[in-house]
Design goal:
heterodimer; A: 11 helices; globular; B: alpha+beta; 4-stranded antiparallel β-sheet; 4 helices
Chain lengths: ~280, ~150
């Protein structure tokens, strides 16, 4: 899982950034982060980041690697989000690094005081990471309920204008992808039969609210992971919005592909009769 | 103090609970966010796109900003202006145009090279609504500014 997360971190780290912060956000309210946008600073920092990723994957010097990974990620993406508009792709990643850093320092403290419990470090690291992933979905659901005073579901038939907007925006990003016929067809159906919007999109709110289920074992994580991937697939299909970071994190931390492969392999080998040797 | 520690130890899913509360309270301050995307739906919305002097669309990503980023920038500047104006005072169309021009200047500053044939850049606003069981789109140019070398 650490390898998968490290690959995601390496791919998401930008190679260039604007060296200005016209609309400071987060840490940029108090710190000038523009130096991170200068190639002479960003390039060596990227190599430090990659070096720390190697330590992170090997599980060595975590007390050094994790704070550096967190600090670089926080700085770079805070600057990126201080350009006058905020994206929602990387918050989840920085939050995971924050939680993993706190967990590892807590683990070090418990080890030195002799109050360490029986769980392995790896298991707990995954447990806290899954809690972080779950929190972002629960927050998204609660925000919907808070913003609408609980009437988010009743507003769903109005989603048609949002579907048109996101599909058009996707086209105007690159002018390369004309609007898919499916979204247009679905929109027509919702306009003529507004009730369709309820069974189609209301489960999204329930799935987000129930995301905490993922921390209750491997099987709930896999089932909920598949449900979340399905929800993201529907969003891509209908609205052309790809939360690729979220999908990658679900595959890494919830679907647990290596464990699934190991189970399939074990089942296969146990199915071979002894006489087949 | 001891009972507080005991209470904290008894709470399940501590990290999730702490992050949920932090994200809802801190809202949009990186790395925290209340993830407000599609938090509510009303019957109308709009988006912005870029066009050249003849009205031909330009790809937003050539300016290193996606189309939804352009809208977020524009909305953020409008919100700031509304906050600064006196309570109850409506923003004039001139203010709206000033924000649109600021958005265009910001986008131009993000693009290193420009095609030689591009002399003017337009910010086009498309308002979307539903009327008579049909999607209605209304386009208008909110601002256009010449591009200087």
């Amino acid at each position: 899982m650490r390898l998968g997360f490290a690959v995601l971190l390496a791919f998401r780290l930008p190679s260039s950034l604007p060296a200005r912060q016209p609309t400071p956000n987060g840490l940029a309210h108090w710190l000038d982060l523009t130096w991170l946008g200068q190639a002479a600073n960003l390039e060596p920092l990227r190599w430090v980041f990659f070096g720390m990723l190697i330590l992170y994957v090997s599980g060595r010097c975590m007390a050094l690697a994790l704070p550096i990974l967190f600090a670089v990620h926080l700085g770079v993406f805070t600057l990126g989000n201080s350009q006058g508009w905020i994206g929602h792709t990387d918050q989840i990643v920085t939050l995971i690094l924050l939680v993993q850093t706190i967990f590892h320092f807590g683990h070090l403290a418990r080890r030195s005081s002799g109050t360490l419990n029986e769980h392995t470090v790896g298991d707990l690291e995954i447990f806290y990471t899954q809690q972080t992933i779950a929190a972002t979905y629960v927050v998204a659901a609660l925000t919907k309920l808070i913003k609408t005073g609980g009437s988010w579901i009743t507003q769903l038939p109005n989603i048609t204008v949002q579907i048109v907007k996101t599909n058009d925006q996707f086209y105007y990003d690159s002018l390369a992808h004309p609007n898919p016929g499916f979204a247009e067809w679905l929109n027509g159906m919702i306009i003529h039969h507004p009730w369709i919007a309820y069974p189609l999109f209301a489960p999204g709110l329930i799935i987000e609210l129930a995301a905490f289920i993922i921390v209750y074992g491997r099987r709930p994580a896999i089932v909920m992971g598949l449900v979340l991937v399905g929800m993201h697939a529907l969003i891509i299909l209908v609205m052309q919005i790809t939360f690729s970071t979220n999908i990658a994190l679900i595959v890494i931390y919830l679907l647990n592909v290596p464990w699934l492969l190991a189970m399939a392999l074990r089942r296969r080998t146990s199915a071979i009769p002894d006489g087949g040797k | 103090m001891r009972s507080l520690v005991d209470f904290w130890n008894r709470i399940p899913l501590k990290a999730m609970l702490a992050l949920t509360i932090a994200c809802l309270l801190v809202r949009e301050q990186y790395p925290f966010s209340n993830f407000p995307m599609f938090g509510s739906f009303v019957g109308q919305t709009y988006y912005l796109y870029l066009a050249d002097q003849s009205g031909k669309p330009l790809p937003a990503l050539a300016f290193s900003v996606p189309t939804n980023g352009i809208k977020k920038f524009y909305d953020g500047r409008l919100r700031k202006l509304k906050k600064a104006s006196r309570k109850g005072e409506k923003l004039a169309s001139m203010d709206d145009r000033a924000v649109a021009e600021e958005t265009l200047r910001y986008l131009i500053s993000r693009r290193n090279k420009r095609p030689p044939e591009l002399t003017t850049i337009q910010l086009v606003r498309v308002d979307i609504s539903v009327a008579n069981n049909q999607i209605m789109k209304k386009k208008r140019i909110t601002a256009e500014i010449p591009i200087r070398e």
